[in-house]
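for the recovery benchmark. tokens below, seq after
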């Protein structure tokens, strides 16, 4: 069998950045044989300027919202953003499907090989069945009034079954957010997620904590707008949103907390007392787009939290690119080493989605895809001009 050999200025293995002497060797299908030295590798080495990395893992996306690209103004805050989303969901199916296909193609082109994708309906299913990318399907449910818990659960169950038929090991039902799921609905969701990976939008805006602490703030505007009289069923818990809902999400083995823009040390301490694994999924560009904020990333690092990256959707991001997420984080947190950022983008994401046996690093036997990041700075750092390109599919 012929081998493929790749050499660049730098090679990120999944755990460390190796210098230009390192050569990655795969078989014809892209399965990793080894990383060796140039002198050991022999002839026919393909050479590149830049850094080679395993394919990126996008742990949080809503592919089905791709048709909303550029439709929602920036910096409106989360509540107005959600109200916009509710209005814009009604586009023609042809437009929605075309936007889904284009967004997926762009993700593949810029080095994403696997996606944790939120689905409220089955519109992405036909595209996912083409097998261009690997997916973990999070079938999302919402409904804040306890009266609609059963009907929302049953509607979601139909979508869940449609995906589960084709993706039996990588489909799970998940709650949308603390402010949009009732205790009764949490209980129904929890009944079908035992030992699985779950996900929830977490503390994306300051008012989310305020709402659970005191019942005040902008979320009241949201319920008014959708005609939901929450006074008949909601009482503030007096705790942050995260501490209010975590006790209601007990059956999944692992929980992806998405956004975490207003997560505190007390919240992290609270999570430490739970039996579950928690993964902090950062979507920096979406936080900038919606709230003009960034999560307390150094707080998560100081606490040795498990961090992964997501793009969120084209409703709240100008592109679905993990490199762009890295660039934004680097810009505001220049202290974070590139090795660490790349680990979040690759091996941590693969582990979070239970895909690390095949993806996330250049360990022998994996088939993680090979991505080239070009236009590095003189000392090998990622710049605002850097671009990522998939040069070998996963
Ligand atoms: Zn999201």
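predicted aa per position
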């Amino acid at each position: 069998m012929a081998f493929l050999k790749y050499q660049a200025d730098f090679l990120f293995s999944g755990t460390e950045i190796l210098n230009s002497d390192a050569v990655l060797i795969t078989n014809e299908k892209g399965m990793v044989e080894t990383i060796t030295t140039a002198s050991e590798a022999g002839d026919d080495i393909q050479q590149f300027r830049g850094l080679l990395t395993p394919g990126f893992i996008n742990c949080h996306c809503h592919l089905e919202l791709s048709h909303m690209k550029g439709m929602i103004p920036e910096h409106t805050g989360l509540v107005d953003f959600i109200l916009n989303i509710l209005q814009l969901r009604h586009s023609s199916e042809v437009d929605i499907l075309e936007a889904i296909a284009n967004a997926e193609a762009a993700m593949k082109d810029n080095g994403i090989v696997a996606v944790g994708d939120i689905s409220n309906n089955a519109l992405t299913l036909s595209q996912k069945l083409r097998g261009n990318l690997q997916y973990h399907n999070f079938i999302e449910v919402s409904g804040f009034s306890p009266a609609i818990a059963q009907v929302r659960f049953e509607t979601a169950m139909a979508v869940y079954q449609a995906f589960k038929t084709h993706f039996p090991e990588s489909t799970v039902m998940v709650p949308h957010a603390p402010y949009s799921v009732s205790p009764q609905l949490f209980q129904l969701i929890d009944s079908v997620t035992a030992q699985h990976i779950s996900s929830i939008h977490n503390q994306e805006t300051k008012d989310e904590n305020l709402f659970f602490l005191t019942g005040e703030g902008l979320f009241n505007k949201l319920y008014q707008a959708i005609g939901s009289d929450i006074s008949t069923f909601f009482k503030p818990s007096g705790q942050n949103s995260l501490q209010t809902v975590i006790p209601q999400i007990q059956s999944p083995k692992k929980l992806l907390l998405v956004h975490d823009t207003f997560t505190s040390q007390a919240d992290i301490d609270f999570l430490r007392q739970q039996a579950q694994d928690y993964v902090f999924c950062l979507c920096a560009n979406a936080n900038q787009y919606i709230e003009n904020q960034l999560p307390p990333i150094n707080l998560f690092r100081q606490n040795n939290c498990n961090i992964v990256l997501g793009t969120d959707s084209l409703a709240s991001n100008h592109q679905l690119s993990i490199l762009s997420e890295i660039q934004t984080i680097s810009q505001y947190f220049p202290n974070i080493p590139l090795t660490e950022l790349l680990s979040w983008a690759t091996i941590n994401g693969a582990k979070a989605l239970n895909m690390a046996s095949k993806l996330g690093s250049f360990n022998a036997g994996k088939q993680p895809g090979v991505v080239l990041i070009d236009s590095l700075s003189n000392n090998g750092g990622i710049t605002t001009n850097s671009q990522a390109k998939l040069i070998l599919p996963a």
